[in-house]
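testing teh design pipeline on a random one, pls ignore if ur not involved
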């Protein structure tokens, strides 16, 4: 199953000496959590305040018919609240058949971490917290990762017990602009809609940007998003093949769709993000300028592409739909990647 943000949901590792973890950033601090608890990742939607909740439960939203309370880790750790932005994400966890969301700055990657690389957290008091949220620390490359035990999110720390009754009234994201509020509200409506029948069938799309233009890629093809780190060039390959990169030990070919979409070729320094997509039995990385959103578009709202696009691309463009202040072209990525001229003669 592909989640709303389409990150890889790994199966429980066959290697008992390692654990699969989701790594995320929260305002420059890096955390890790057990991926078996992760259901999916979504862009931050508009949240409805929840009465009689702990102060670190900053609101709720509906995820296809199920209510998801959302945790602000800043407040959970006793820090001052920080403003949200449309770039924030919510990691949706499932624990004991209950859903809970955690606001993060960015989901970075999924890794396999050896059990012996994890260390218990240091103890600073003679009477340690019986229900600590911090489960340990680990080093991953040059980063120190704080490992979290998400089962403790439902436990109220003793020193916060008195503050629940003092929780002030608030509105979601009061510092947001009207345009940002519209984005949050649209996301909440999209997430609220349950899967419907054929007459209202929905098309899940990842909205990406290339050369200041929006494009939609169907979520069923998307495996995850990642940041490109040190790609290796491949000799004697056409310009649309940018090189290879290693993703958790797997070697992926990086492709640039700009030529196929009649867009100017980007500089090598401009290729910083990739959509990891499944093409047949292989995984490939498609470089993009940015990943903006995940939306669920009603198929009946997908408009036919203009005649000029149909003439140039045929079935490679499924249709168009409005997004933000522009028109978004919805790509048939399988058709684009299957172009005959994109096949490389292995004997060259």
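output:
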């Amino acid at each position: 199953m592909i989640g709303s943000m389409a990150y890889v949901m790994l199966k429980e590792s066959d290697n008992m000496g390692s654990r699969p973890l989701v790594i995320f950033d929260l305002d420059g601090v890096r955390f890790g959590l057990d991926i078996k608890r992760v259901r999916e990742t979504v862009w931050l939607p508009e949240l409805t305040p929840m009465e009689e909740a702990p102060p670190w439960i900053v609101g709720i939203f509906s995820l296809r018919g199920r209510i998801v309370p959302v945790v602000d880790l800043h407040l959970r750790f006793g820090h001052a609240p920080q403003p949200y932005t449309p770039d924030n994400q919510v990691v949706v966890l499932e624990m004991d058949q209950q859903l809970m969301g955690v606001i993060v700055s960015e989901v970075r990657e999924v890794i396999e971490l050896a059990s012996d690389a994890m260390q218990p957290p240091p103890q600073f008091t003679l009477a340690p917290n019986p229900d600590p949220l911090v489960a340990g620390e680990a080093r991953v490359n040059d980063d120190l990762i704080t490992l979290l035990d998400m089962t403790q999110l439902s436990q109220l720390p003793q020193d916060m017990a008195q503050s629940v009754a003092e929780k002030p009234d608030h509105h979601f994201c009061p510092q947001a602009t009207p345009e940002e509020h519209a984005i949050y509200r649209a996301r909440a409506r999209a997430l609220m809609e349950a899967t419907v029948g054929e007459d209202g069938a929905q098309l899940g799309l990842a909205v990406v940007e290339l050369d200041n233009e929006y494009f939609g890629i169907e979520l069923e093809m998307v495996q995850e998003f990642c940041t490109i780190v040190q790609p290796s060039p491949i000799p004697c390959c056409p310009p649309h093949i940018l090189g290879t990169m290693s993703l958790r030990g797997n070697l992926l070919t990086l492709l640039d769709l700009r030529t196929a979409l009649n867009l100017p070729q980007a500089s090598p320094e401009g290729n910083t993000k990739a959509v990891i997509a499944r093409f047949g039995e292989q995984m490939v990385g498609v470089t993009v300028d940015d990943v903006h959103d995940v939306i669920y578009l009603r198929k009946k709202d997908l408009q036919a592409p203009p005649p000029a696009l149909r003439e140039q691309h045929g079935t490679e463009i499924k249709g168009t739909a409005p997004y933000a202040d522009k028109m978004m072209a919805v790509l048939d990525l399988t058709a684009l990647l299957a172009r005959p001229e994109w096949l490389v003669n292995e004997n060259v």
